[in-house]
Amino acid sequence: MKLAIVFGARSFEHEISIVSAIALKKVLTCELIHIFCDHERNFYLIPTDEINSKRFSSGAYKKDKLLSLKHGGFYYKKLMSEVKVESDMVLNLIHGADGEDGKISALFDFFAIPYIGPRLEASCISYNKLFTKLFAKEVGVDVLKYQLLLKENPEPITIPFPLIIKPLRLGSSIGISIVKEASELSYALDVAFEFDNAVLVEPFINGIKEYNLAGALSKTGFNFSIIEEPQKEEFLDFDKKYLDFSRTKRVNEANLSLETQEAIKTAFAKLYSPLFQGALIRCDFFVLDNHVYLNEINPIPGSMANYLFDDFEAVIKALFEVLP
Question: What is the pTM (predicted TM-score) of this model?
Answer without folding.
Answer: 0.92
